[in-house]
Specification:
- With 92 residues, this protein is an alpha+beta fold.
- It has a single domain, classed as Transcriptional coactivator/pterin dehydratase (Gyrase A, domain 2), CATH 3.30.1360.20.
- Helix content is 42%, strand content 23%.
- A 4-stranded antiparallel beta sheet has the order 1-2-4-3, covered by helices on one side.
- It is globular.
- It binds ligand H2B.
Length: 92
């Protein structure tokens, strides 16, 4: 899988609420009502990630989950990262 061009990436970002590019990675911070909700979100996405063989870099503090996505094998942001972000937005 090859990294998306800047043009394709900008087009995709228009349909991805809350996501930005930070340090070459697709980035978003999610905030939930509680730790349990944040961890439930992470648990659901952990199963999706494992099923698809595509895993996030993420960080949890109480009710916040910070996510950075990149495709390590490709050395950039690919369609796999976009798909992961879309699933995350649906589950949040
Ligand atoms: C062999 C295995 O499928 C690969 O190492 C997968 C695992 N999860 C991955 N996750 C992410 N984010 N990028 C990858 O390149 C990647 N590679």
């Amino acid at each position: 899988m090859t990294p998306l061009s800047l043009q394709d990436l900008e087009a995709e970002l228009k349909n991805l609420d809350g996501w930005t590019i930070e340090q070459g990675k697709l980035h978003r911070e999610f905030k939930f009502a509680s730790f349990v909700e944040a961890f439930g979100f992470m648990s659901s996405l952990a199963l999706v990630s494992e099923a698809n063989g595509h895993h996030p870099e993420w960080f949890n503090v109480y009710n916040r989950v910070t996510v950075d996505l990149t495709t390590h094998d490709a050395g950039g942001i690919t369609q796999k990262d976009i798909d992961w972000a879309k699933t995350a937005n649906k589950l949040a």
